[in-house]
């Protein structure tokens, strides 16, 4: 749902009636993961997607029905060789989709307030998590809890219960359920993950109670490109395409200019290692070193390989790589730290141009982030759609019914 927050926020502000369909569970191969959403307003306007087109028509009709009867439902879509007329996924996977009507006239004011808080915060790019009941008693299905970092929530939150997160809304069960759910959602928000949590109605982790889908929306990850070289301009464009906030850093002011990098979010003129020491990075950050100059590379990589980032790559020939590794060892970098370095940076695509090189670097970043192999899918038995690793992104979900 939060992937279309900007549009949903606009619709809510305009007072439109609409229904939101969200993928709440995935089994096997499926084109979209949990949290992917499609919405339909009272006039039939559609935004978003829950699949590659296989089931969109049927989900559209479910949304129209939800607007008519005001009921939240969960529907499963799969694939059956026996039923040629069944609506399902041709890729052989199974998805569960929850459809929830959102109307200004709805009687549940806490639900409306929590929903609006979630889409408003996500639309502004702020950190927020939404916990919704996707399996449980019919009266609780679709109930929502919006969780934000306590320092960002302000005084309008309904509670925090010592969970480390303030929240709005209620799941409608035992009071402890809201506090426990808020704590679980905050933990997933901290790592930017989307996934399911099983709780009992009294807030304990006993099986057989409720299943919550927790969606997290966090500011975009950072990509820092060190070295204002020709390849950097193409990599900036690739990074922006992948959804990164991209910074270009170079110690030479004549090269690090807005005219040369109009699409970069930030341009910094500073020695790379000095900038890295003072800027904020996290477990989603990608650091791309394109300078291939020892006086910049060695102090920068020594710092980079000791930071908690997702990716550290450096450009250069294999001869440059060998010389750089020797210098890094002499500078005190350990073998364990060196093992984190992706060098020469990029996958072997036979790249020649700056754009092709940027594509090869972006492909390696994606493969590292998602656990891919980088081998061709043709002739391979590697699954196309995999459950993502626990370290980030949308987690693998259990089917909810």
TrEMBL record:
Residue ranges occupied by any XdhC- CoxI domain in the UniProt entry: 11-78
Chain spans, region Disordered: 151-170
Residues covered by the XdhC Rossmann domain: 223-365
PANTHER family the UniProt entry points to: ALDEHYDE OXIDOREDUCTASE MOLYBDENUM COFACTOR ASSEMBLY PROTEIN, MOLYBDENUM COFACTOR INSERTION CHAPERONE PAOD
Name of the protein in question: XdhC/CoxI family protein
